[in-house]
Specification:
The protein has 94 residues and is an all-alpha fold. It has one domain. 85% of the residues lie in helices and 0% in strands. The protein is built from 3 helices and no strands. The protein is flat, with a radius of gyration of 16 Å. Keywords: Cell membrane, Membrane, Plasmid, Transmembrane, Transmembrane helix.
């Protein structure tokens, strides 16, 4: 597949994931609050970061040993951010 077509597909996926994040934010925050919002939006955020990083590094669709390490790094950073937000929400509520 041509790289322009892959970039167009990546943009469509990114817009769809952003719309999904907005929907999750609207419904989860209205129903349960910040903790559920963070837990529900985190996997979508990881997919967005993975898509953008792999597209930026031109690794999408390739069998490179960097792909798992990039995804693991993004997951680690996202996990730390989510834990910080959850800790702040717990201490603010308490």
């Amino acid at each position: 597949m041509k790289s322009e077509k892959l970039a167009d597909r990546a943009l469509v996926h990114l817009v769809a994931l952003t719309a999904l994040t907005s929907a999750i934010a609207y419904f989860a925050h209205a129903v349960a609050g910040l903790g559920v919002l963070i837990i529900a939006a985190a996997p979508v955020g990881l997919m967005k970061v993975r898509l953008v990083l792999l597209e930026f590094l031109h690794l999408r669709g390739r069998a490179s040993p960097l792909v798992p390490s990039v995804v693991a790094w993004a997951g680690l950073v996202l996990t730390m951010a989510c834990l910080k937000l959850l800790a702040l929400s717990v201490t603010a509520a308490g």
